[in-house]
Amino acid sequence: xxxxxSDAATPTPMQIDGGxxxxxxxxxxxxxxxxxxxEKGKEEKEKKKKKKELGESNLDGLCCSICMEPWASHGDHQxxxxxxxxxxxxxxIIKWIQQCHGYPAxxxxxxxxxxxxxxxxxxxSPVVVHNEGLQKKIESLQTEIRSLKNEGKGNMGExxxxxxxxLCVINVRKYIGRSVYMRAGLLDVQDKLLDVQDxxxxxxxxxxxxxxxxxxxxxxxxxxxxLGFFSAKESWGENNGxxxxxxxxxxxxxxxxxxxQQELAVEGATLFDMDASYQILILARRISGMGGTHMLNKIxxxxxxENEDIQLPKRIRxxxxxxxxxCGRLTLLASLGKKLSIxxxxxxxxxxxxxxQDPAWSCSWDSNNPSYIYAGLxxxxxxxxxxxxxxxxxxxxxxxxxxxxxxxxxxxxxxxFGQGAHKLLTASSIGPCVWNTxxxxxxxxxxxxxxxxxxxxxxxxxxxxxxxxxxxxxKILASxxxxxxxxSQSSTALNTVGSQVLVKRVAGxxxxxxGSTSTNVSYVQMTKSTIINIENCYPIFAYGDEETxxxxxxxxxxxxxxxxxKPHQLPILDVKYAHSQGSGLLGCISKEKLQLFSPxxx
Length: 602
Fold this sequence. Notes:
With 602 residues, the protein is an alpha+beta fold. Among the domains are: 63-124, Herpes Virus-1; 257-475 and 495-601, Methylamine Dehydrogenase, Chain H. Helices cover 19% and strands 35% of the residues. The strands form 11 sheets. A 4-stranded antiparallel β-sheet has the order 8-37-36-35, with no helix packed on it. A 4-stranded antiparallel β-sheet has the order 9-10-11-12, with no helix packed on it. The longest helix has 33 residues, at 184-216. It starts with 13 loop residues before the first strand and ends with a strand. Pathway: Protein modification; protein ubiquitination.
C-alpha cells in the first residue's frame, strides 16, 4: 500500500466521469480543500452545507445559472425566462440586462439579444420525485465519507475508495436530478386545459346556435333584403312592437323585478365587472388621498366584506374599461397609459401587457375565439391581439372617425348564415359601428337607422337576444353654427333630455330599428348600460338616470319603465349583469357605493 507524499510539488489529477461527455479533475489541492484546509476550503464547505440545508434544491434545472442559487416561485428571485427559453431568477437577469445601460443585452447561455421587456415571469412550480430509498443511500454514503476522512488523509487506497464513493454519490444525484425534467409535463397539462376550454366554448356556441336557429325560424317569411333594417311591423306585427311570436307565446312570460341584496361603501369607484362562475367582482378605483393612485379591488361575492387590494404600476394610469373573461379567472384592462393588460385572479398580477400607440378607451374578449382580444383607442382605431403572441397586434383597423371608441362588443357568429368572419359592434360619439375583422380592407359601417341621432354616450348589447340599445345626447351648436361633441363652458346645466334607441340584429346582417324613447342624460359624463335576459321574461334595459341618480329599468321591446331602484347621492357610472347556472346578479356603482340586486319573479 502506497502513501502520497505530503510535500509533493505537483498534485496529480484524477479523472472522474462527470456525465454527458464531461470529465472532472480532482487534484490533491482540491482534496485538501474538501478536507477543510485553508480559508477557501472552509468557504466551499459552508456552501455545501447551505445547499444541503436547502434539501438538495441545487439539482440541474432548479438553479439560476447567473448566481447558482435556486430560484423561487414568487418574489424578487422568481423563475423568469427570456424569448430564447433560458430560465433565470428575475432579479439576476434584470441586473444582467441593466449592465448594458440601455443597449440590448445577450442571454448568458446562448448570446441571444434581449431587453428588460422580454423577461417573462414563470408561475409553474418545478416537479421533483422524492425517493426515500435513494435519499437514505446518499446519507449513508456521506456518513462513510466522513469516517474515511477521519481515518487517514494520505492513504492512497482510502483516497481511491473515497473517489469511488464520490462517483456513486454523483451518479445517484444525477438520477434524482433527471426527475426535474418532469416539469416539462406541466406545459402539456396547460395545453390540455386550453383544449378543454376550447371544447367548452364550442359547446356553448352550439347551444347558442340552436337558440338562434329557433328564433330565426320565425323570420322565413321576411324574405331577403339588402343590408339595412326591417320595419317594426314586419318584425313584431301590427301592434307597434308588442306582438309575440306563436312559439314564444306558448311559454308563460313572467314579470320580473329586482331587490337589493347588498350595498357596500367604495371610495373613488369608476368601473367594475363580475365573474359569475367564481363569484368574484373586480372594481377599478382612483384614490384621491394617495395622489390620484389607481388600483383594483377584488371582492368575494359570497362574503362581500372580504376583499383584496391590487396595486397597479404607475405607467398603467386610469382604467377606462375592464372585462372579465367568459371563462373566468382573467380580467382584460384598457388604460390611458397606452396599455392593454390581462390580470390573473389567481396571482393578482398583470400577466400580459401590450404597448399601444394611443391611450385605450375600451376592450373586449372575442366570443368565438378565447385567444383573441380587442382594444379601442382614443384615435378611433381598433386593434386585434392574440394572447399567444405577446408583442404586436394581429390587425390594426382605422375607424370612421378619429374620436375615441368607448365601447366594444364581440358578435357571436351564426354558421347558419355563413358568417365565418369575426364581427364586432363598437360605439364612438358618431354612433354604433359594425366591423368585420376578417377582412382588413372592409371598412366599418354605422348601424343603419342610427345616423344623425346625436352624440352616442352609451351602448348596450345582448348576445342572447341580439338587442342593441344606444343612448344619445343632443349635439351642441357652436357660435358659428357647427356641431360639437364637447360640452359648452357657458352651459350651466349638467343634464339634458336625450334619447334611447332600440335596434334588433336579425339574421346576422340586418338591423331593425324598433323604437326610441326620451331619457335624462349628462352633458359631461359617459356612463355604461346593460341588457338583462332572464328565462321566460322580457329583456330589460338597465341604466343610470342622471336626474334621480338611481338605477332605472325599462322593459323591451317597448322601452316602458318597469322599475326605479334605490338612488345614489352621486351619478351612476357603471352597470353590469352577470348570470351563471340559472342565477343572476345586477350591479351598479357610483363614486361612493356599490349596489347588488337579485332578480325576483312577481
